[in-house]
Amino acid sequence: MRSPLRSAATLAAVAALVSGCASADDWSRPHAAPTPVGALGPGFTDPTATPTPEATVTPRPGSWNGVHPPEGYRVVLLTAGDDRPTRALVKAVRDWAEEEDVDLRTVTADDPARRVAAVREAVDMGPDLVVGAGNDLVDPLAAVTPSHLDQQFLVVGAELAEPTENVTAADWSGASFRGEGLGMSSTYDPASFTAARCGAAVRAGVAAVLNGLTGIVVWLDDAV
User: Fold this and answer.
1) Dihedral angle at the C-alpha atoms of 144, 69, 212, 41, nearest 10 degrees?
2) Fewer Cβ neighbours under 10 Å: the N or C end of the chain?
3) Contact 126, 74 (CB under 8 A)
4) Percent of the chain scored above 90 by pLDDT?
5) Residue 24: CB partners within 8 Å, gap ≥ 6?
């Protein structure tokens, strides 16, 4: 005869397992549009004028610190390259995601022939935000993003030459790569990709996206 205590323990274990599976977000289900937790501080933008598409804003340092992503925020980190600036950006995104308890997944696009496909893969995952890190992704993003206007993108440490309204960039003078057709900026400086600046780029860029300030460049020369 089965012990009542053993049966109860088995049922409890099964219930815990089912509960754990149910709580895991597999991204197959839609969820509410993300809204920011907290608010932008004074000086992030001019309160009397909403930035126009492709505008550049220079926020006051730290004016983004009060903004946090909501619970269950879904982000795909799309990355290509193993140079030091790209590694610094990737680490900044991962550190931010851990600190903010973001549901982060990664798509690595190291094969040049498959970078456009990698961007589409990231979109097909259904995230709230795709974050691009690495100069090698600028041209593939420029090719794909106009066809997915309902998907928000954030490019950190670079920017698209002609971004659509769904592509925001967080950039600075030492970064500012805008695609192969334009070549590398004369001010490009790999040493400018410090942990502090890359972290500020992620946080300021996400704060802009969460507040509907998209299709712009968030310029961070004075961020740190």
Assistant:
1) -140
2) N
3) yes
4) 74
5) none
Tell me which of 53 and 8 has the higher pLDDT: 53
Q: Amino acid identity of 141? A: L
Length of the chain in terms of residues written: 224
What is the arithmetic mean of pLDDT over 104-117? Answer: 96
CA 220 to chain centre: 16
Tens digit of each residue's pLDDT (9 = 90 or more) over 127-163: 999 999 999 999 999 999 999 999 999 999 999 999 9
Give mean pLDDT, residues 207-215. 97
